[in-house]
Each structure stands twice: as C-alpha cells, then as structure tokens.
Amino acid sequence: MNEKTTHGLIIGGIVLIVVLAFFQMAGKETIISGDTTPKISVTGTAEQDTMPDEVVLMLSVLTEGSDAKQVQDKNSQQMNTVIAVLKTTGIKEKEIETTQYSLYPWQEWDPTNQKTVNKGYRLQQTISVTTTETAKAGELVELAVKNGINTVDSISFRLSNTKEQQVKEELVAEATAKAREKAKTLAKNLDVSLGDVLFVTESSYNPGPWYYGGAMKATTMEAAVAPSISPQQVKVSLQVNVDFEIE
Q1: What pLDDT does residue 216 have?
Q2: Angle at Cα 220 formed by Cα 101 and Cα 147, nearest 5°?
Q3: Which of 73, 88, 143, 173 is exposed most, by the fewest CB atoms within 10 A?
Q4: Could you give the count of Cα atoms lying within 13 Å of 28 in the half-sphere of its Cβ?
Q5: pTM, 2 dp
Q6: What total of structural domains would you count in the chain?
Q7: What is the end-to-end Cα distance of the chain in Å, rounded?
Q8: How many Cβ atoms sit within 10 Å of the Cβ of residue 126?
Q9: Residue 20, by phi and psi: left (phi above 0), alpha (psi -120 to 50) or beta?
Q10: Successive 10-residue mean pLDDT values, the chain, 247 residues
Q11: Residues 84 and 141 in one domain
Q12: Domain span at residue 223?
C-alpha cells in the first residue's frame, strides 16, 4: 500500500467519524428539545362526602379438642349452621366466601413444669359475608354469634363497584375541570396561549374500606339486642396532575 492510499484511508476514516458524531449530536438535540417543550403544570383536586353502600363481615369459628377429626367435625357443623341461618336473611351463596381454614396442633407453655404441653388441636375457619344491606350489619353479627361464631374478626364498610365507579367519574370530571381552569388563569396572566394536554396522571384516590373495629370475641357480643353497627359518611378525594403545552 503506497503513501497516498494510506493518507486517503486515514482521511476517509476521519470523515466517517465526524459524520457519525454529527448524527449522534443531532439525535441528542431532538431529545433535549422534547424535554424542554414550554408547558404549564397544574394540579386539580376534588372531594366528595359519600355513604358506603357495602359491608364486609369477617366471622370465625375457633374449635379446640384432643382429636383432630372431632375438632374438624364440630367446627364444620357450627359453621354450616351459621351459613344456613345467614342465608335465611337473604344473604346469597356468592356473598359468602371461606377466607381461612387452618387445622394445627394446639400447644401451650406450662410454667410449672417449664415445658411445652400438647393440648390437642385447634381449627379456625373464617368466612367473609358481603352485602349491600349495611343497615343489617348489627343484626347479621348477632345472628351469627348466636349460632356458632365465636370471633368477629372485623367489620368494614366500603363502596360497591358500581358506586365507586360513579363517584370516581364525578371526581375525575371535577378535578380535571379545575385543573384546566387553573391553567387558563395562569396562561392569561402570563400572556400566552394554552395548547394541548401533554401529560396527565391521577393520584391520591381513596375509596376505602373503612373499618368499624378490630376483632371481637363472642362474649362481647352477647347482648340482649343486636349491636348498633352502621356506616358513617366519609370523604373520598382524588387529584389529577396535568401538563399543558404553551403555544
């Protein structure tokens, strides 16, 4: 290879490197240009006082005994009785769900002998009962306890899927309208024109559930009348963040 050819290859390589560098810089400039689009960023919030229209009762039967099969049979009999009684009030099959079924050895520490003693077996079966008859919550709890439930794990109120969708649509409409009005006011005071929406996110939406109380043993529910358990009006809020282009 002669000297002239070598120089030509070197110059050609340099030109190629410069061209590649140019295109890389051009690509970077395009990305930076997109990131620096003039915009107005605003937040719109909306809130609504609403009444939960659904209640979920978590009810358990805890059974203890020396024989695993006897414990299982007794527990099943109690829970089946509870479920049958609940259905007489209008609770549907699909509204009752088994959420826990746990059979395990029952052991306790004996402080006198300083050792763990086998006491037999324990079985806990828990069901969730979901209904839109929120006014019946106390009546259902009383009925369940009278017929075999010995632990009320929790009582929670929430929005049904239908009501949650309705409330959310109303809050979104209100929050986005407020965001647009805020952006218009800013644009007017800045003497610029408001363009298209560049970006929007939703945050801080809180549809519940709201808990009535923690676990309660059956002995606390053995009053002559049904306990008064009813939902309270709660505040549901939603926030949207919107970026508008400045024209």
Answers
A1: 52
A2: 50
A3: 88
A4: 6
A5: 0.72
A6: 3
A7: 60
A8: 19
A9: alpha
A10: 49 44 40 66 95 96 96 97 97 97 90 84 97 94 96 94 93 96 95 94 83 57 66 90 94
A11: yes
A12: 54-159+211-231
